[in-house]
Amino acid sequence: MAESNYDLEPVKALIKVLNGGVEFYTEAKKKLDDIELSRIFDQMIVDKAQAISDLQPFVLIDEGEIETDTALSVDIRESYTKLVGMVSTDKAHTYISQLEEVEDKVLKKLDEALSKTLPPKCKSTLLQIQVRMQACHDQMKQLQELTA
Is 1.10.10.10 the CATH number for 9-147? Predict the structure, then answer.
């Protein structure tokens, strides 16, 4: 493992939430028969996958291997949504509400990472990702309000 003066745990935690988000959006796409939502979810998956790809080099330098785990909280939320989705009459709203919560978690993890002392290039990458993830959050929030 490479020696680093930086604590990259918050970046790894963010990657875990992003990985979980990709899985959750993928699962939601399979469960909802809506072409427009599928298109939106595809874009969310692409944005998260790009953020993961942008962050992995920092973890690789620090750890010597990429981060592939998902955040347990996202996994739990996905399981909860599946359960509620089975009994809910409005599956789209149920998934969108839970996905919006995942977006909240992504922003929270981004804020936590940005509050730490990190390599300048990592900090710059996080700031760029924050803009994209804020847009994802805002879009899901808007969908949540439209489907309420």
Answer: no
Query: What are the extents of the domains in the chain?
Result: 9-147
- In this prediction, residues 12-20 reach a mean pLDDT of 91
Angle (deg, nearest 10), helices 72-87 and 91-114: 170
Q: What is the pLDDT of residues 85-104, one digit of tens each?
A: 554 567 888 889 889 989 99
| DSSP sequence for the chain | ----SS--HHHHHHHHHHHHHHHHHHHHHHH---HHHHHHHHHHHHHHHHHHHHHHHHHHHHHSS------HHHHHHHHHHHHHHHH-S-HHHHHHHHHHHHHHHHHHHHHHHHTS---HHHHHHHHHHHHHHHHHHHHHHHHHHHH-
- Six token digits for residue 118: 């990190």
Report yes or no: 62 and 122 within 8 Å, Cβ to Cβ: no
